[in-house]
Amino acid sequence: MEKLVIRTAKDIENFVDAHPSGKRTLLLTFVALGGIFVDAYDFASLGVGIVQLRQAFHLSPAQVGLITAIMALGACLGGVIGGRYIDRLGRFKILIINVALLVISAIGAALSVNFEMLLIFRLLMGIGVGLDFPVALSYVAEIVNKRSENASVGGWQVMWYVAASCSGLAILPLDSGIFGEHLWRFAIGFGAIPAFIILLLRYFYADESPRWAANNLPLSKAAQIVAKTYNIEVEVIPGHEQVKAKSSGKLAILFSPRYRLRTLLISAICITQAIEYFSVGFNLPSISQSIFGNTMDNAILGAIFFNLFGIAGASLGAWLSGKFGVRRMAIFGYAIVILSLLLFSMSHTPLLMAVLLALMIFGHSIGPGQGMTLATLSYPTELRGLGSGWGQGMARGGSIVGFFLFPLLVATSGMASTLMWVAVVPLVGIVIALFIRWDPDRLPQEDLRGAKTSVS
């Protein structure tokens, strides 16, 4: 068995940076990113049985929109406010708390007896989702070696599109008619099952992030975590203890001179990619119906078909970002999205429209869809939860805009004009990414591994 001698916290960080990835690391990565699967399902689940839900609670169009928006608002709050607690309390506690919240909120929403009760549990579900993204990605970034960072953290997007596809497969039998007026309850409540499985896996297999432990716990305790995480023998020989970096937990630090430009770039990419995805990608079922025919099967199967291109783009993007950088990949992806949207808006044949929509999803996932990867890898350990949480908050803010922007523009201007307007969003993203030339791999290690974190 491999033996590691630890004298200081820096020895732990050096080991994590250089160690070869093994089965244990892959398992922990899957367990952490498994929550993303639940997140994607929870966001999509309410679309099933919306007719029955509207009838059950006699909802107005505004109330239906509020149920959708409240989850995005909760995710925004969970990311921005929860980021400081991810850094303060540690990764493991939040990994458990947030997925437990997803289990409770899914069951509570499914059992809701009125509109207000459903609204409360959808808000709690959103908070759980908003917490899960930054803590899961932070955890993955802090257990894998330096060579695998981009590919491993970028794997979250692959998980999202796999979940979106699997959600459609799960929804097909639910839509068979056997659930009747309770269809929406089964669709939402089903999300508690994978969430509970992830909860058990995290509780029994995961532990604290070695990097966070090295920065916040006694050396002996951090060494125990390293031994369990990587299944190695560890010997502690106390040496000169370094002064451990501490974050104030205040968002203002992200806009201090050291971090300001990268935070602005992260904000721009996260907002713009969310607007373009939640305007178009989130409406794949309805767009699929307009292309393939107005049936529920066409809506679900069409969305699954297009999400397969998301899986391909996300997989390729996670690999290429390690070679070219997330920012450059975002620029490349933005260009594909713009071209696809403009050509789609001028197309009239179903086959060409399907090809262009698939290309748009591919371009989004290979490039700007990796905004959360950039947010996670751009800050040192003591700020990673805060920075990643900020990126999640910006993405959810963009998603709220997309939720309302797309149907409003379609109703007033039509599909073709709407897609031309949506194409402006990635154009803004390209311009900002060209001017702010930041990529995590460009800076020396001390900037990402324990830099001074006081507000200048």
From TrEMBL:
PANTHER family recorded: CARBOXYLIC ACID TRANSPORTER PROTEIN HOMOLOG
* Provenance organism: Izhakiella australiensis
Q: Which SUPFAM superfamilies match?
A: MFS general substrate transporter
Location(s), subcellular = Membrane
The protein's matches in Pfam families, at most eight in alphabetical order, are given as: Sugar_tr
Named from the GO MF annotations, one term is: carboxylic acid transmembrane transporter activity
Against PROSITE patterns, the record matches this protein to: MFS
Instruction: Tell me where in this chain the Major facilitator superfamily (MFS) profile domain is found.
Output: 28-441
**UniProt entry tagged with the keyword Transmembrane helix:** yes
Annotated GO CC locations: plasma membrane
Task: List the transmembrane segments.
Answer: 26-50, 62-82, 94-113, 119-141, 153-172, 184-205, 259-279, 299-320, 332-362, 393-411, 418-438
Name by which UniProt lists this protein? MFS transporter
